[in-house]
Amino acid sequence: MGSGHRGSVGGQLEHFLRESVVNPVEITLGGLMDFFSKPVGVLKPEDLEALARSGIDENQTLEFKSALPNHELNNDPWVKDRKINDAAKFEVLKRLVAFANADGGWFIIGLAEPSDGGTYADRLHPLPEPGDLANRLQQLASERIDPPLSVVSIEPVLTDEGADEGVVVMRSPRSRRAPHAVKGGTEDELLPAVARA
Predict the structure, then answer these.
(1) Calpha distance 111→62 (Å, rounded)
(2) N or C, where is the chain less crowded by C-beta within 10 Å?
(3) Pairwise CA distance, residues 77 & 70, whole Å
(4) Is pTM beyond 0.90 here?
(5) SS (H, E, C) 37-55
(6) Burial of 161 per CB tally in 10 Å (0-12, 13-18, 19+)
């Protein structure tokens, strides 16, 4: 074998995809391996569309919402007034902490589930001003997670640049500094997020 890491299965797959004339999205389980191997900051709308088309279910390392998690149905304060209410702040931070304390994971805001109640990605549901939302969530994460998550990525992916709409993608890898907690939350609320898998 040549130099580098091509001797591993992952290295062989990477080499095959790089050298292949076949579209990698078509041959990597609906684009999933391609999506999850990219840094958050380089994701494009096509990557999110492939994820939505894949019909992947939410699981221990992937969660998505069409809007900010909120206890008020059909009343997302971000869409209405560009505000993040306290419940949404806590829910987002709790998920980032849970992923960091376990095996890491992805939290995507702007991917909708089907109306039949399924827990799989169905379609894009762009939010207004995703760059501003991502910046605010990044600031909240740096201020309210203890100890701080040094490698959390929170980035916007514009789906319609002219209208400033898109999706917010967050990745919180497993942390060596776990357990983490959300400042201002109660221990009862954080107990599931603090437990290590």
Answers:
(1) 12
(2) C
(3) 9
(4) no
(5) HCCHHHCCHHHHHHHHHHC
(6) exposed
CA–CA distance, 26 with 120 (Å, rounded to integer):
19
The two tokens of residue 160 are 């319609």
166 within 8 A of 159, measured Cβ to Cβ: yes
Indicate the SS3 state at residue 41.
Answer: helix
Quick one: tokens of 138? Answer: 């990044």
Q: Do 91 and 69 touch, CB atoms closer than 8 A?
A: yes
Q: What is the pLDDT along the chain (197 residues), one digit of tens a residue?
A: 444 443 444 444 454 444 433 333 343 444 566 788 889 999 999 999 888 888 888 899 999 998 988 766 567 788 888 999 888 999 999 999 999 999 999 999 999 888 887 888 889 999 999 999 999 999 999 999 999 998 899 999 999 767 799 999 999 999 999 999 999 755 444 444 444 33
Instruction: With beta carbons less than 8 A apart as the criterion, state whether 67 and 127 touch.
Output: yes
Cβ contacts of 84-88, under 8 Å, gap ≥ 24: 84/133, 84/136, 84/137, 84/140
Tell me the domains of the chain and their CATH numbers.
1-30 (no CATH), 42-194 (3.30.950.30)
Letter for the amino acid at 162?
G
Which residues are CB-neighbours of 36 under 8 A, at least 6 positions away?
A: 106
* Lookup: tokens for 162: 């002219």
